[in-house]
Amino acid sequence: MHRRALIFVVSFTMLSASVFAQAPIPDWCRALPRPEYKTLERVPVSDTWFEVYKPAPGVFAIYEPHQAEETIGYLIVGQKRALLFDTGMGISDIRKITEELTKLPIIVLNSHTHDDHVGGNWEFDTVYGMDTDFTRKNAQGSREDAQAEITPDQICGTLPKRFDPKAYVTRPWKITAYTHDGDRFDLGGRTIEVIATPGHTPDAISLIDRANGLLFTGDTYYPAPIWLFRPETDLHAYAASIRRLAALAPQIKLVLGAHNIPVASPAVLAQLVAAFDAVRAGKVSPKPDSPGKVLYKVGDISFLMRAPAAQ
User: Fold this and answer.
1) Cα separation, 185 vs 102, whole angstroms
2) What is the pLDDT of residues 72-108, one digit of tens each?
3) Angle 37-198-257 (CA atoms, 0-180°, nearest 5)?
4) pTM above 0.90, yes or no
5) Surface-to-core class of residue 234, CB atoms within 10 Å of its CB (0-12 exposed, 13-18 middle, 19+ buried)
6) Is residue 120 within 8 Å of 90, Cβ to Cβ?
7) How far is 114 from 107, CA to CA, in rounded Å?
8) Which structural domain, as residue segments, surrounds residue 127?
9) Number of H-type helices and E-type strands within the chain
10) Is residue 92 one of the residues assigned to a domain?
11) Residue 280 is assigned to a structural domain of this protein
């Protein structure tokens, strides 16, 4: 599970005192909201579990501010169909939200298949996946991962009224077809290209909308400690992937990550490479974090990684 919000302050809509009275307030809830959201156009939706913002024309950032993952999925709308990049936690009904935002048919791609990005996959008819064993395994769903996301320290406020915590699982979904590096999806007047960016997971991808200068980075970059400690993480692959993204910076106007804040400057891509290179070169001293993990921080970039082996 990601615990990014335990380290970074995140944004949410202020809830009433009566809501907070029902449970202790996690530390990550206390100093909100983030100022970055004031600069974005907010789009009203019927379900208060979600907040929706419009960071670019034809792009909706679907944000889950009441759970510590602070996931952000992106609905990218063309003239003929729309693409949903990640379906979030599965705690509330993301399909209902997408239907409020567009009447076009929707295809789903995932930035990777950790549970907090695929929770609503089962609701959609067309889901593309990367052709990896990691993807196929995660498509079977998980109860253990889901249950860890709804412990009291992970929830800010109340869960949706119809949500049953005891029954909460990441539900299985069907992979309709496989996608690969370089595939292009024509949405009608808008083309989205897949960029394989393995490292965080074997099936990690980014998306680029070249015509509009938009780069959707999933968990390869987001503005909080980037998780690089799990067994499926490949640091060599990650290094290559972030270099590939940094090479695209001259074409990019906006970087859109999958957690906490949906907008960043393209300059962050070169900063990401420099920071990771410094860490791997031993130029950055780690700070102890949770058991077996350390935090490396270089300017505004940070990485949560496995603790170095004792000498």
Assistant:
1) 18
2) 999 999 999 999 999 999 999 999 999 999 999 999 9
3) 5
4) yes
5) middle
6) yes
7) 19
8) 4-268
9) 7, 17
10) yes
11) no
